[in-house]
Write a structure and sequence with these properties.
The chain is an alpha+beta fold. Helices cover about 35% and strands about 25% of the residues. It contains four helices and six strands; from the N terminus they run ββββααααββ. The strands form two sheets. Strands 1, 2, 3 and 4 form a four-stranded antiparallel sheet that branches. Strands 5-6 form a two-stranded antiparallel sheet.
């Protein structure tokens, strides 16, 4: 579950589903080529790969998801404080590949245990309790997140506002600063919050 970021899936191949849990209840959204599905912060989500599912994931807010914005649905005893949560979720970067995979699978299974309990709960309180625990877990990182947001998403929105102001004044000078960039990953297949990811400069 993300606390500040919306997430979107563009399905390019195969088939599957995304299971979601919000205060409105449990839903299953089928994923087939051409589907664009998205959800807002507070949505507990679980991807199910039924037949070679291929998706492009679009995330809001300049890398916040891999900076800790997402909190796994661990059972409550693992959500009591940042240290306890980290002990159940951290993957040592210097560990052998096999050990990293074992830890990633173990935390996935633990998150699935907590997810099932939330999905099958009677009444809204267990989900509300998870929301409170997740918010408390990330509180120590909010200053870092705010700085990342200010440098990234907020700065981009402010630049667009400045460009609109210029165009309104009949000043297209910023168009002469146009440029093209391309970048290749600096690392491939790193274990991220939701599986493996490729790493680009300046990202987690």
């Amino acid at each position: 579950m993300h606390l500040t970021c919306s997430e979107a899936y563009v399905v390019t191949g195969g088939s599957g589903a995304v299971q979601t849990l919000t205060a409105s209840g449990y839903e299953v959204t089928p994923l087939v080529p051409g589907t664009v599905a998205w959800f807002t912060p507070g949505t507990i989500h679980r991807l199910v790969n039924e037949d070679d599912l291929r998706i492009t994931v679009l995330m809001q807010n300049n890398g916040l998801p891999e900076a800790g914005d997402a909190v796994l649905t661990l059972p409550p005893e693992h959500l009591t404080d940042p240290e306890t949560y980290a002990a159940a979720t951290a993957i040592p970067v210097d560990a052998p590949e096999e050990e990293q995979e074992r830890i990633a699978r173990a935390r996935r299974d633990l998150a699935l245990e907590g997810y099932r309990a939330l999905r099958d709960a009677d009444g809204p309180e267990p989900l509300a309790a998870f929301h409170r625990a997740a918010a408390a877990l990330v509180r120590p990182r909010l200053a870092e997140w705010r700085e990342r947001w200010q440098r990234g998403a907020r700065a981009a929105a402010a630049a667009t506002g400045d460009q609109l102001d210029r165009l309104e004044r009949g000043d297209p000078a910023h168009l002469s600063d146009a440029l093209v960039r391309a970048e290749q990953p600096s690392a491939y297949g790193k274990f991220g919050m939701c599986g493996r990811l490729n790493v680009y400069k300046g990202t987690a």
